Amino acid sequence: MPNFKNLPSKLPAGKTSIFSVMSGLARKHKAIDLSQGFPNFETDNHLKDLVCKAMKDGYNQYPPMSGVWALRTRIAEKIAALYDICYDFETEILVTNGATQALYCAINAFVHPGDEVIVFKPAYDSYEPDIKLAGGKPVLVELKGKNFKIDWQEVEAKITSKTRMIIINTPHNPTGTVLSKNDMQQLEKLIRCTNIILLSDEVYEHLIFDDEVHESASKFPGLAERAIVCASFGKTFHNTGWKMGYCVAPEVLMKEIIKLHQATVFCVNHPMQRAFAEYLKKPEHYLQLGDFYQQKRDKFFDLMQGSGFKGTPSKGTYFQVMDYSKITDEPDVDFAKRLITEHGLAAIPVSVFHKNGKDHKQLRFCFAKTDETLEKAAEILHKL
């Protein structure tokens, strides 16, 4: 029998995702799940019908590797209308198996052993493992204060001759903050005379509130010329289980990303691509999402008034970070697990996203839920 116990691990510090841990506990204890970022309401029946129609119409074999022509055209039209930039649908747009695959391919296409990648913490938990798998080194910059702002002077100090890439995420998971026009202009100025690649995670681009504006990297010429922008259909259209996303980038960068795409998944679900191509013909399907989710955010935030939890209303995404320090001083991971096992409610401890697991006594709640679910959750939280 072979002995694999001592095989070297490419991710020796890798742990099971906190999302899997909390969702697993939630299922085990039949808890209300406000942890993992998925809606508990259905996607549009019309979109589901379009998928079924595509299957019945025979679109069940391999599609083109980069995505079907019609969908890439719709994506190009959408971006041009929103951000006033024209991406070539043939050479600069790639349909991916969710945004996470787009992120993986973008990082592994350009990060080589010894390269450094600047990551802002707290951060989505796939960035650092992807960098390490490529042999790179994550260079961590902690967001500052309760409003999670970027200190651009600190970023400048972190840039070295080894800096290959900077990763930004706006609207930001887990904090619900958004980068301002001034932030993007400062970044643009900072990397103007470098060969640094920008990876911009914009999966929540349409989930933005309070008359804020999504400042896509695509809007800024000095960023767009070096930016890989990743987006998600699953987050946008309430079907995260479909694992559908895309990325856009200048042709010189996209050529390398496609090589990774070809070697990993090659292509993406054909009938779903056909369905999205048809669905995107009506911009209201995504332009109305900000108002829809702002109502959800307001509902949850109003329900939490008078509880022991405190926070600032999220500016984007479908997450709300709340401080629980007036309730208990126990570590957030312990409190989150106890919240499931003793009270029947799942949330995500924010320390897992922070540099060195720094604990600010905060939990992240997903408010992409029915009003009934939010009301039941708030009732539990008020009792703590």
Account of the 3D structure:
Its EC number is 2.6.1.88. InterPro entries: Aminotransferase_I/II_large, Kynurenine-oxoglutarate_AT, PyrdxlP-dep_Trfase, PyrdxlP-dep_Trfase_major, PyrdxlP-dep_Trfase_small. It holds the Pfam family Aminotran_1_2. Keywords: Aminotransferase, Pyridoxal phosphate, Transferase. The protein has 384 residues and is of the alpha/beta class. It is built from 15 helices and twelve strands. It has helices spanning 18-28, 45-56, 69-83, 98-110, 127-133, 152-158, 181-190, 221-224, 233-236, 251-264, 270-279, 284-287, 289-304, 332-343, 371-382; strands at 32-33, 93-96, 116-121, 137-142, 163-169, 197-201, 227-232, 245-248, 319-323, 345-346, 348-349, 362-366. The strands form three sheets. It has a seven-stranded mixed sheet with strand order 2-8-7-6-5-3-4, sandwiched between helices. α2 (45-56) packs across α11 and α4 (98-110) packs parallel to α5 (127-133). 44% of the residues are buried.
